[in-house]
Design a protein that fits this description.
Length: 247
């Protein structure tokens, strides 16, 4: 176990710009020990069911990272039921990123020999709003795990093969310019003034007889006034019935 962690740490410190290593046979067991991989790099390693495997990779603006994972399962005679596997991708803030392609959570039947998983991320953007969850340039984490399987099948050996590609998408998708501004262009620090139209005789007359101070009469007003009148009449009738007459 110590050798595995040491190898993972050495690979995590490796410079991905030096070129992808052909094959690596280790994986981390948490976000902190995630092993660094690069595009076009193949990963082949032995693991056991129940392990959590972590890798990390850098992504730049314009790329569309895609993962292809194959897990060779133990022999059918050694398994007692189906297995569910899951692959997840998180950004540098540990936010789970949506996959727009690939099978993220396949279920392998009891007689299956392997299970295939995949995840294609959305194109990495060069900018985004603070409240937005779009993928941004930085480090991404891959988590592979067997989520549901019979308890007696825990610890069975499996072989994992992973391939990472990062094709370039539409690099101008988020770098466009508006043909016209969405709002009128203002000049900061200057007050925009427009000459007021000269008042006319008709406008002065309209102002003199303006009834803008009156509320807008709607159905709510009608029902409110009607309800008040009915309540007043009901109160008077009830009072006349219940008061005592003097002899």
């Amino acid at each position: 176990m110590q050798a595995l962690i040491t190898a993972a740490a050495l690979l995590a410190l490796a410079d991905p710009s030096a070129g992808p290593v052909p094959i690596t046979s280790v994986a981390g067991t948490s976000f902190l020990t995630a092993v660094t991989i690069a595009p076009q790099q193949r990963v082949e390693m032995d693991a056991v069911t129940g392990d959590y495997l972590y890798w990390q990779f850098p992504a730049e603006a314009g790329q569309r990272p895609e993962l292809a994972i194959t897990v060779a399962l133990p022999q059918a005679g050694d398994r007692s039921g189906p297995q569910s596997w899951n692959v997840e991708v998180f950004d540098g803030l540990r936010r789970r990123q949506a996959c727009v392609g690939g099978e993220q959570s396949p279920v392998a039947a009891a007689a299956a020999t392997e299970v295939v998983l995949g995840c294609r991320l959305r194109q990495v953007r060069s900018w985004a709003e603070p409240w937005d969850g779009d993928p941004l340039p930085g480090t991404y984490y891959v988590k592979l795990s067997s989520t549901e399987l019979p308890e007696k099948d825990l610890g069975l050996p499996v072989k994992v093969r992973l391939a990472l590609t990062a094709p370039t998408g539409d690099t101008g998708a988020d770098q466009g310019e508006l043909a016209a501004p969405l709002v009128a262009g203002n000049r900061p620090g200057k007050v925009l003034t427009t000459p007021a139209p000269a008042p006319s005789a008709s406008s002065e007359q309209d102002t003199a007889i303006s009834m803008d101070w009156l509320p807008d009469f709607s159905s709510r007003w009608v029902w409110t006034v009607t309800g008040g009148v009915i309540a007043a009449i009901t109160g008077l009738v009830g009072f006349s019935w219940t008061r005592r007459r003097r002899a």
